[in-house]
Amino acid sequence: MSRMQRSATTDDGRRRDLVRPPAPEPLPLPVTDTHCHLDIGDGGDDDTFGPDQAIAAAADVGVNRIVQVGVSLPSSVVAVDLARRYSSVVAAVALHPNEAPRLAVDGELDDALAGIDRLAGAGDIVRGVGETGMDRFRTGPDGIPAQEESFRGHIEIARRRELALVIHDRDAHGDILRVLEDADLPERVVFHCFSGDAEMARYCARRGWFLSFAGTVTFKNAGSLREALAAVPLEHVLVETDAPFLTPHPHRGRPNASYLVPLTVRAIAEVVGRDLEAVCSTIQHNTEMAFGTW
User: Fold this and answer.
1) Please, which residues have CB within 8 angstroms of residue 107's CB and are 6 or more apart in sequence?
2) DSSP string, 68-122
3) Is 66 helix (H, G, I), strand (E, B) or coil?
4) How deeply is 229 buried, as exposed, middle or buried, from its count of CB atoms within 10 A (0-12, 13-18, 19+)?
5) Pairing between strand 15-17 and 7-9?
6) Which of the four, 9, 55, 73, 163, has the lowest number of CB atoms within 10 Å?
7) pLDDT tens figures, 201-235
8) This prediction's pTM
9) CA distances from 5 to 1, 18, 43, 156, 197 (A)
10) What are the residues whose beta carbons fall under 8 Å from the beta carbon of 83, sequence distance 6 or more?
11) pLDDT tens digits along 113-159
């Protein structure tokens, strides 16, 4: 099959390259992909690239652990199952913010939250509650109350279960901070795929929260995000893929997987002006502070 054939058309008519990017140079010290969706197909040209291959490819470049994140009750069950199957994987469980309005309309939100609570108690393989939060990009005003209800329910589960709270925040910075300000929070809070500005980053760091940076920090048009990264102590920084989404530069738009984390780590090191080994070591320490060891 030719390279031209290994592509697809996106919803907005653009061509998407489906060729899996080559492996980057391995990192000098191990790091963790703190947010990944191994169960979501990436549309890549290699149909055999499943969890076994993704985990092995990541380990080959120094990404030795993965946090598998649920976005619905069924996918959270899968996250727990993957954590049981692979010693390098732990789970985070939740209802995605954009799931909440649909569940509320169907009268299923309370039962779904109860299901997440049960999964959160599945033992040491579950380390986080998330991704939960608010999203004004895909959900209109009518759905925001259900999102907030779900978010607050997840916060309570994370606090009671003593797990990290993993936050999804898309175009909802004010809403997120408002809820966090008046909620009884768990000890550890992680902003998945941080997207705020430098002022918000400094505020989060002062609160002791972790900011996880994905491939978006490598994008050419992400100057404000790099300013946010530079504005906080490295001790508050995590790294993630959000795979199969948000593939880092220079492979933006192609299939993403945990083995591409080194591209983002090197970008982080460049932005903060620190030695790559020191950045790897600090990020891994931060990961253990947020999610524990495994």
Assistant:
1) none
2) EE-SSHHHHHHHHHHHHH-TTEEEEE---TTTHHHHHHTT-HHHHHHHHHHHHTS
3) strand
4) buried
5) antiparallel
6) 9
7) 999 999 999 999 999 999 999 999 999 999 999 99
8) 0.94
9) 6, 9, 13, 48, 39
10) 68, 89, 90, 91, 125, 126
11) 999 999 999 999 999 999 999 999 999 999 999 999 999 999 999 99
- Going from the C-alpha of 124 to that of each of 49, 120, 162, 240, the distances in angstroms are 27, 9, 11, 21
- One-letter amino acid of 29: L
Assess contact for 64 and 30: CB atoms under 8 A. Answer: yes
Q: Name residue, tokens 């991704």.
A: 131
Determine the residue type at 239. V
Domain ranges of the chain: 30-291
Distance of CA 261 to the CA centre of its chain: 12
Q: What is the CA radius of gyration of the chain?
A: 18
Beta strands in 171-262 (DSSP E): 189-191, 210-213, 237-239
Q: Indicate the class that CATH gives domain 30-291.
A: alpha beta
